[in-house]
Design brief:
Oligomer: single chain
CATH topology of the largest domain: Nucleotidyltransferase, domain 5
Number of strands: 11
Largest sheet: 6 strands, mixed
Shape: globular
Number of domains: 2
Strand order of the largest sheet: 8-7-6-9-11-10
Order of helices and strands: EEEHEHHEHEEEHHHEHEHHHEH
CATH superfamily of the largest domain: Exopolyphosphatase. Domain 2
Length: 306
C-alpha cells in the first residue's frame, strides 16, 4: 500500500514542495514546485529574519498547502534550513509560521541538511562512484559530501551561500575582475576544512544539486527553466566553461533574456559559477553531473527505507 507525503523545504531563496507516494521499496513523484521567498534579503548578513521575509514566506506556504489539499497525503513535513537556523530571531519566525499556517517548522542542523542531501542524491544515482564530491549550493549555505563505497564518509555545511556573498560583496553590473578576485578570496579563506579533508583525495567527479546546477543545465540545454526533469545528467567541463565566460561577461538585463535562466537565479548565478569554478580547479575535478534530487528527496528516501 502506498503512503503519500508532502515535503516543504523552506530555504533561503525559495520555498519548495515535493509530493510523492511510496511503499517500502518504490516511489512516484506526484508534484514538485517552488515559490520565491528571498528570506535572506536585507538581513542575512546580520543573521536576522525580517517581517518582509515572513510576509513573503506565509503566502508561499499557503499556496503549497492549497496544492497539498488536492492530494490525499498522510503526512506533511516542513523543513527549514540555513537562513532560519542561523537567525538570532528564529523562534519568532517559527512561532509566526505555526500560528498563521498551522505547520511546525523543523529547523535542521547543517549536518542533518548535508545528510539529507546525500540521501537524495543516493535516491537519484543508486550507486555513487567512489570519491565523488556532492555539492549543494544554496542561498544561505553550501553543503559538501564526500563518498566512498556508496556511503557518505565526510560532510560539512558551510554558511557561505550565495545570498550571503551578494550582501557581503555586492557585484557591479557586469561584475568586475577585481570583484571576482574578492569573491574567490572570500570563499577560499573560509573553506579550510574542505581543503584539509581532500588534500590527498583524488575526487573522481562532482555531483551538483539544487538551483545553480539546475540553471547551468538549463542554460546548456537551452530549455526553459524548470521544464526539464533530470534525475542525473552530465555537464561537460567545456560546456561549463562556455557558460561561465558568458555569465561573468553578462549584465543583469542580459541574463534575464537568456533561455534557461530562472528569474530567482539572475542575481546569484554569477557568484555561483565563480564558486563552482574555484572548487573544480582547486580539486582538479574533470567530471560534473547534475541532479534535481537533493534535500526533499532525502526526506523521501528516509521515509521509504527507514
Amino acid at each position: 500500500m502506498y503512503n503519500r507525503i508532502a515535503i516543504i523545504d523552506l530555504g533561503t531563496n525559495t520555498c519548495n514542495l515535493l509530493i510523492a507516494e511510496h511503499d517500502n521499496s518504490n516511489y512516484h513523484i506526484l508534484y514538485q514546485g517552488k515559490e520565491v521567498v528571498k528570506l535572506g534579503k536585507n538581513g542575512i548578513d546580520k543573521n536576522q529574519l525580517t517581517p518582509d521575509g515572513l510576509e513573503r514566506a506565509i503566502p508561499a506556504i499557503r499556496k503549497h498547502q492549497e496544492r497539498i489539499e488536492k492530494y490525499n497525503v498522510s503526512e506533511v513535513v516542513t523543513i527549514a534550513t540555513s537562513a532560519i537556523r542561523e537567525a538570532t530571531n528564529k523562534d519568532w519566525f517559527q512561532e509566526e509560521i505555526k500560528t498563521r499556517t498551522g505547520l511546525e517548522l523543523q529547523i535542521i542542523s547543517g549536518d542533518k541538511e548535508a545528510e539529507l542531501i546525500f540521501k537524495g542524491v543516493k535516491l537519484a544515482f543508486g550507486e555513487i562512484e567512489d570519491h565523488s564530491l556532492i555539492l549543494d549550493i544554496g542561498g544561505g549555505s553550501n553543503e559538501f559530501i564526500l563518498t566512498d563505497a556508496g556511503q557518505s564518509i565526510w560532510k560539512e555545511s558551510f554558511p557561505l551561500g550565495m545570498a550571503r556573498i551578494i550582501e557581503e560583496i555586492p557585484p557591479s553590473d557586469p561584475i568586475t575582475p577585481e570583484e571576482i578576485t574578492k569573491i574567490n578570496d572570500w570563499f577560499e579563506s573560509r573553506l579550510g576544512p574542505l581543503w584539509n579533508r581532500l588534500q590527498n583525495v583524488n575526487v573522481g567527479m562532482m555531483i551538483g544539486c539544487s538551483g545553480a546546477f539546475d540553471t547551468l543545465a538549463d542554460l546548456i540545454d537551452q530549455t526553459d527553466a524548470g521544464t526539464k526533469t533530470r534525475i542525473r545528467q552530465e555537464i561537460a567541463i567545456n560546456d561549463f566553461y562556455l557558460i561561465y565566460e558568458k555569465l561573468i561577461a553578462s549584465t543583469t538585463a542580459g541574463r534575464m533574456k537568456m533561455k534557461g535562466m530562472e528569474s530567482i537565479r539572475v542575481e546569484m548565478i554569477v557568484p555561483s559559477v565563480i564558486f563552482i569554478k574555484m572548487v573544480i580547479e582547486r580539486l582538479k575535478i574533470h567530471k560534473i553531473f547534475q541532479t534535481d534530487f537533493a534535500l526533499r528527496e532525502g526526506v523521501l528516501y528516509e521515509h521509504i527505507f527507514n
